[in-house]
Amino acid sequence: MSTKSNVAMIASLVSEPSRAAILTVLLDGRFHTASELAHMAGIKPQTASFHLAKMIEAQVVTVEKQGRHRYFGIQNPEVARVMESLLSIAPPVQIKSFKQASENEAIRLARTCYDHLAGHLGVQIMDSLINKGMLSEDQDGLYITERGETFFADFQVNLTQIKQRRRSFSHKCLDWSERRHHLAGALGSALLDRLLTLHWIERLPTTRAIRITADGKRGFKEVFSIEIG
Fold first, then answer.
1. Helix (H) or strand (E) holding 37
2. Residue 30's pLDDT is what?
């Protein structure tokens, strides 16, 4: 399916609020049961099951079976990329409670966008990599410089292994909350994995917001020159 047809398909799907809510939850890059998705999206389980079936048919959502349980996730990185782009032009959600405000702030600071890092932190990391000469940017995309190859090797990100993956190596993804770009593709995915391994960041159980640890605050300042309050 081409990018153009992907955009049309996903735009059609997310015009229905319940489907949009489910897909937004699935941008955490994890697999969830229908009941979990219903709870997090604030809809009935029967409603979630109905819409999940429609999205599986459209090849936007995939399902994995383990015993009696079925787990749902976004079909591929391209779907997540289009979804994030659509969110960037959607009107902001109305904040009606302190809990909503806190969750919104956490999401905007740092979150997963499928399998890479987004939010203010994600944008700052890409800016840092460009400003320090690790990545070069032109109208066609992002490229790793010679200095960048040394940096990623020292940071224990295996570029040779990443380049063998059957997907885009590195590209810019428009961040819906920052209205700027963060790093995506196989390189963005590998960097997220490395930051999790270092325990600089931690996934949270019921949201795609990412918690930045004390080690992370020190590490981001030392390595990327990013100050986190």
1. helix 34-41
2. 85
> Which H or E run includes 74?
strand 69-74
For residue 67, CA distances in Å to 39, 64, 70, 72, 117 come to: 22, 10, 8, 14, 32
Q: List, in order, residues 6 or more apart from 65 with CB less than 8 Å away.
A: 71
Q: Which alpha helices (H) appear in 58-184, and where do they start and end?
A: 77-89, 98-109, 119-131, 146-154, 159-163
Q: How far apart are CA 84 and CA 86, in angstroms?
A: 5
**What is the pLDDT, as a whole number, of residue 3?**
52
Residue 39: Cβ-neighbour burial (10 angstroms; 0-12, 13-18, 19+): middle
Chain position carrying tokens 């010679």: 146
For the stretch 164-220, pLDDT in tens is 887 789 988 888 888 889 999 999 999 999 999 999 999 988 788 999 999 999 999
Q: Whole-angstrom Cα distance, residue 157 to residue 28?
A: 22
- Report how far residue 15's alpha carbon sits from residue 17's, in angstroms, rounded to the nearest whole number: 6
Cβ(172)–Cβ(184) below 8 Å? yes
| Dist. CA 229–CA 220, nearest whole Å | 11
Write out the two tokens for 5: 């047809």
With beta carbons less than 8 A apart as the criterion, state whether 117 and 109 touch: no
List of the chain residues with pLDDT < 50: 1
Does pTM top 0.70 for this prediction? yes
Total residues belonging to the chain: 229
Question: In angstroms, rounded to a whole number, what is the distance separating the alpha carbons of residues 84 and 74?
Answer: 12
